[in-house]
Design goal:
globular; about 0% strand; about 290 residues; 2 domains; single chain
Length: about 290
């Protein structure tokens, strides 16, 4: 984490003092995990709904722990707080976007993703990471991503030839198609009339699902396009591997939408409005299927 962060700091011309602050923030960014529910360390335990508050709180806890030492610059505290923010405002804990995230925070949020992929995945981490950065280009700082992607290309080619994927693709295509179809049906059943508030769970879910479909269409990986694409890629190890990874990333995005709905609107299960009921029903589907 610190090595990747410093690489990005050097590439963007940070001063020696700022790099020292960045290094400290990178080393300390996950202190808050020490205070999370131990269930989070169990890979077989699926944490959903309000239980995810521990995840959202850990950057705040880490920032407070760094502050309590009295040993680090304010910029380090803020960067630690921001290491799960995203450029499009979809991150946490404050939902900051773009220029509202500090330069050190932007470096930290990308370095955290890079380090996480190599820690989490033994198979094809470079290709997985490259794909996620490209598919989620609105979430990450473009200038910093441009420093990372070229480093991944040689490894991507090597990984794909050695470990071709594709067997999961048909199931992923079916799940994605069902997710979008389910939402479209629930959305169509909501009575017309008052327009949902832009701050509502309904507007959020609709916007995020539409954005995901747009991204998949732009990359040629929408369920409507996948059948023909799979035929065209027969025998192409790199192409098949990328299709499978696109599907995995898209399903992760669906889980992210589910988790965000539970986190931001904990009263959704009450179904107090037709719009809330539609979102709650889609979330119930996602919990069962994903």
């Amino acid at each position: 984490m610190m090595t990747v962060a410093l690489f990005l700091g050097f590439k963007t011309g940070l001063s020696e003092r700022d790099c020292a602050t960045l290094a400290a923030a990178a080393l300390l960014h996950d202190l808050g995990v020490l205070h999370m529910d131990p269930a989070w360390s169990d890979p077989d335990h699926k944490v959903v709904g309000v239980q995810r508050k521990h995840l959202v709180a850990h950057p705040i806890t880490a920032m407070l722990m760094v502050r309590d030492t009295g040993a680090y610059a304010k910029a380090a505290e803020v960067a630690v707080l921001e290491h799960h923010e995203r450029m499009d405002g979809s991150g946490y804990p404050r939902g900051l976007a773009g220029a509202d995230i500090t330069p050190l925070g932007r470096i930290l949020l990308l370095a955290e993703v890079v380090a996480a992929f190599y820690e989490k995945y033994e198979d094809m981490p470079a290709q997985r990471l490259s794909l996620v950065l490209r598919l989620n280009h609105r979430k990450f700082p473009a200038a910093l991503v441009a420093c990372i992607l070229p480093l991944l290309q040689e490894e991507v080619a090597r990984e794909s030839s050695l470990m071709p994927l594709g067997n999961d693709a048909p199931r992923q295509i079916d799940l994605l198609a069902e997710a979008f179809s389910c939402w479209n049906s629930l959305k169509a059943a909501v009575p017309g009339g008052a327009k949902p508030s832009p701050e509502s769970a309904f507007a959020f879910a609709d916007a995020r699902l539409l954005a995901l479909q747009k991204t998949l269409l732009e990359s040629g990986a929408h369920p409507q396009q996948q059948g023909e694409l799979m035929t065209q890629l027969e025998g192409d190890a790199i192409g098949l591997a990328e299709v499978a990874l696109v599907g995995r990333e898209a399903l992760w995005q669906l889980r992210s939408i589910l988790n965000a709905c539970h986190r931001r609107w904990p009263l959704l299960p009450d179904r107090s409005t037709p719009e809330d009921a539609a979102v709650a029903d889609w979330c119930d589907w996602a919990i069962r299927k994903l």
